[in-house]
Request: fold
Amino acid sequence: MSSFLYANQFKYQKVDGTPPGEELKKTTYSMEELGQRLGLKEATAYELVAKGHFDVVDVLGKRRVTKESFERWYASQTDYRTVEDQELDADIMASTYGLPEMARMLGVHRQTIYYIVANEDFELIKVGRYKRATKESFEKWYQNQTRYQLAEDRQERS
Reply:
């Protein structure tokens, strides 16, 4: 019984060096682990917990998220992606531009690019929490307008 209790806590460590909390690690994530799993800062993990997305276990004043509730939440939403899923998105990321990236390319304010995208014909793809425009739709739009110039085009003409 004492090994079960030891495996479900993190405060005390055995003299033989066996790490504590082995059972808790099988069924829960610390805030740091949750953040790492999603590629987020620990503070953002705390914000997600505060919004009530997960079942939480308190272990000596430290909050841990049950893996079961994480998996349930993850399957029910599309805004957050695990690090593994983000790696799978590499091809989509390579074939699209983020809206802030487009704003930098055109040398315009972020709000301006949101206005342009809302009022023009862009093919938008949502990747996690972010909208991205296909490079093809951006190039098509760019070739058919005269108001905005890419920073590299402005430098060539100077």
The first helix runs from residue 2 to 7. Confidence is low (pLDDT under 50) at residues 1-7. The two ends are 78 Å apart (CA to CA).
